[in-house]
Amino acid sequence: MPETAPDLAGNAALKALAYSNGGLAIASDGGLDVPGLAGVWDPKLTHRQGQARLRELAAGLADRRVRWLEAVALARDGQLLDTWTAAGTEGVLAPEPWPPPSEFWVWDIFFFPQLGKTWSELRAGEREAVDHTWLALKRAVQGKLS
User: Fold this and answer.
1) pTM of the prediction?
2) Taking the CB of residue 89, how many other CB atoms lie within 10 A of it?
3) What is the mean pLDDT of residues 24-36?
């Protein structure tokens, strides 16, 4: 599905609406925010910009902080019920060299200094401890459905 909205919440809403005919649908859209590259790196285009482009832009970057942005939308029978956006999972860009891009390369370079690991290296309990973004979204959706 084309992601043509101006922001993550809009793209999540487009997806949820597209799949909601005949029932309830939940959809998401996310991206990597790199504050040190504001205006140059667009979190909404993370997958399309790719690891090579991020490597190029981040060469010599002093502020290597990153955070994960995620939007979730809920729709039923072609009607948008709600959208939520969260951004609490924070880390830094892993030191180079980065591994070759995997299916979703961001998890190989999203580094948690306090744990000394990238997202892809974390065990389930460690992920739960640092993944504030999805925890906030889970609570919001559960609140809407209860």
Assistant:
1) 0.92
2) 22
3) 97
